[in-house]
Prior knowledge:
The structure holds three protein chains of three kinds.
Chain A lengths: L1 H39 L5 H5 L12 H32 L4 H13 L4 H15 L6 H25 L3 H9 L4 H29 L3 H6 L32 H9 L4 H35 L3
Chain B lengths: L1 H17 L6 E7 L4 H15 L3 E6 L2 H10 L5 E4 L5 H10 L3 E10 L1 E4 L9 E2 H8 L23 E5 L4 H11 L10 E3 L2 H9 L4 E5 L1 H5 L6 E3 L1 E2 L14 H5 L7 E9 H4 L2 H21 L6 H12 L18 H7 L1
Parallel strand pairs in B: 1-2, 1-3, 6-11, 7-8, 7-9
Antiparallel strand pairs in B: 3-12, 4-12, 5-9, 5-10
Helix pairs in contact in B: 2-11, 3-4, 11-12
Chain C lengths: L2 H43 L2 H6 L3 E2 L6 E2 L2 H32 L2 H16 L2 H19 L9 H24 L3 H9 L4 H12 L1 H17 L2 H6 L17 H10 L7 H33 L2
Antiparallel strand pairs in C: 1-2
Helix pairs in contact in C: 1-12, 3-6, 3-9, 4-6, 5-6, 6-9, 7-8, 9-12, 11-12
Amino acid sequence: MNRNKLSKWFDSSFYIIGFASTLIGLAILAVLIIDILIDGAGRLGWQFFTSYPSRKPEAAGILSAWIGTVWIMVLTALLAVPLGIMAAIQLEEYSKKSWLTNLIEINIANLAGVPSIIYGLLGLGLFVRVMSLERSVISGAATLAILVLPIVILSTREAIRAIPFSIREASYALGATKWQTIRHQVLPAALPGIMTGIILAMSRAVGETAPLITIGALTYVAFLPASPITYEFPFISFQGLFDPFTVLPIQIFNWVSRPQKGFFADAAAGIIVLLIITFLMNAIAVWIRHKHSKKIRW
Amino acid sequence: MKRIFLCVVLALVSVSITSNAYPAVTVKVDGSSTVYPITEAVAEEFQGAEKGKTRVTVGISGTGGGFKKLCNGESDIADASRPIKPSEVELCKKKGIEYIELPVAYDGLAIMVNPKNNWVDHITVKELKKLWEPAAQGKIKKWNQIRPNWPNKEIHLFGAGVDSGTYDYFTEAIVGTEHASRGDYTSSEDDNVLVQGIATDVLALGFTGVAYYEHNKESLKLVPVDDGNVSNGRGPVLPTYENVTKSLYQPLSRPLFIYVNKKSSERPEVMRFVEFYLKNAAELTREVGYISLPDRAYDLALKRFADRRTGSIFGGHGSQVGVKIEELLQKK
Amino acid sequence: MSKQIRRLKERLIEGALLLSALFSIFITAGIIAVLFFETFEFFKEVSIIEFLTDTQWTPLFAEKHFGILPLFAGTLLTTLIAVIVAIPIGLTSAIYLSEYASDRVRTAVKPALEILAAIPTVVYGYFALLLVTPALQMIFPDLSGFNALSPGIVMGIMIIPIISSLSEDAMHAVPMGLREGAYALGSTRLQVATRVVVPAAFSGIAASFILGISRAVGETMIVAIAAGQQPRLTMNPFVPVETVTAYIVQVSLGDTPTGTIEYRTIFAVGISLFVVTFGLNMISYWLRKRFREEY
């Protein structure tokens, strides 16, 4: 009888314990965000967004950092998205079950779990040294592209897999080739899922610090990479790709490492910007997924 | 699809508008993290004055790392907290790089503890040696092993990393042999890490350039050093402006340098940068917390640069202890 | 367009697609090649026995020691603390979500937990150094500013979603029939959860633990910011230590020239890290596959 009562007591108290442990993480997250807002909100403003980093905490800003982030994100996407989508199409539509396909799949699953700093070492050894691209925007983008590639591939595969086979059959029945079917039927239908995957991959890339530090993104950068559009002939320049750069998370890291209290406020403000970007991207991805999952009626 | 394409184009255009549209030139500086605050201040003022026409990148690989870069032709200027040493002279010679040595400031290497540390009121050079020499590794772990009336608690050491000129100078001045020290301490070429460590650890002791103390006074406690030599100040001495200028803070007073690649100095932007540096060093050096050289010294340095006189007045032997400012002037 | 040209175009496209898929193998091959090459050069100068057994890591000092044990100790200590925090909370949370919570609660809470995983690690580093460490110092006044406890706890919070989410998926997949049988025999909900569902979902749950461990082992920024830079062979969480990942960052910030022994050390420790996380990931993958097969 006693044991029964005890187990009943455990059982009902578990509702509370379980609920509490589920919320602990979120509660701590709330504390973190509130603290950061208190520390950093005061620094946000036009000056913060348009100033370069400075030795004086009050004068410092994230101009080079957020422009660098934009450069890196655009380039990473340009490199990773076509490659990832093509790989996913190959694996979903074309590959037959073989040892090679298995190897590729295990490989991709494994790459998704490799610590990001290892990608940094790869980038350092390959892009910076062997290919002599130096610590430039293109090295950083290439390194991050490789890092997010598994995410793009996995989510594209899922999106393609969700398209019912009947769509393809109908297309074949009308005389289309395999590629035509993919290009005109499957891909457009899978687009929302693919977009979600790309945005999630990019939101991961925007917060990556370790690989970019390893390839040598500088922490003190008070200038911007050269613009791709110039005032002189031939009006297009790729110089900017090979320039040194910094990104938002690295700038935050630099400020956190400085002992003067003033820089903590700068770091917190930078974090607010970074979190807003990250949350916004995740929210857009979820919204796209939600909106289109409702529309589709197979 | 079209909407996505438009978004991407919009992003690229906005990036382009905000980026520089004129190809800019770059001055690459790398080296000592001790000298870094000065160079950073100069770079910031300089880039502002040049309105974006010139870029300056400043790295903190340490004095050793900075020289490696300079002698490999990978940078234009090396920040150095000690003179160039034989192996680096060799390397530069091998790669055909000539350098112009320019002193820019004076530093009193600061020994610091945590503000809550209430048992250290001064420290002697002998005690420092006992604490940092190679034989101390793994053995000297507690405060009371240095001085019996200090607490029986662990001592946490923070100091410059091996690529740092501060490390070279400190080992030369305190241990007696350059590059000889224990290895079991928190070492970093980034003095900010050391300051953070000392400021948050009651049991900490460490050394950095004095500018890092000046900028973090509320979080650190400065320890006066007694070198046992009566001729330059009786008893323990603090690295204040007067003490260093009067050569009383020994053996931890030392000059700070920049070394300019002679070929780079022929580029107009490098020339402008170095001239700006020397012309503004007196003010900016004091602003960041170091000890500026006399104005005469800066004028002589400017002349040295204008003449493009290469080589080191220290004979390329690395750190030299006890170099007084007057000596520096006379050697010119 | 004539049939031949169209077919040729299709072939070309198919070739491009295949290459893209193979690219992922090139990546892994590239990682292994780069790591291996530099490590090979490293081991020409340092014996592998010394690397694995020496208890001091002072590769850059006059008296050189190349024992990786202190770095691994730092990684192990922080990972251990992270796991002690994450597993109880994550598992309890998973049990609650899977067996107790209503569907509405679950759909509301799960994405919220994912937010924890999406936060950039540099933010967690800030949190550890500037919030958690001072808070802990109020409880333990002797705590050093750089220590293993603070980043360990914060890493634990970061990996809670991994453990909670994957364990919950594993438990959710356990057939209702098993639970119903236990209920029929008079068990309470908690007893069903702990004595029937968890053991049944064990391989999936274990896989989530191992994945969490792997994530903690590979984490860089939190420990680089808050754990310190002193390689030390210790299990004391109150003093500065240095992890494998933080060491790589420390050296990279100084941008070492190619070909030096210093440069090579980051690849030697990098390959050790890769081997460990690869091993853990493989075990986790195998466990999940095995679990999937049982149903």
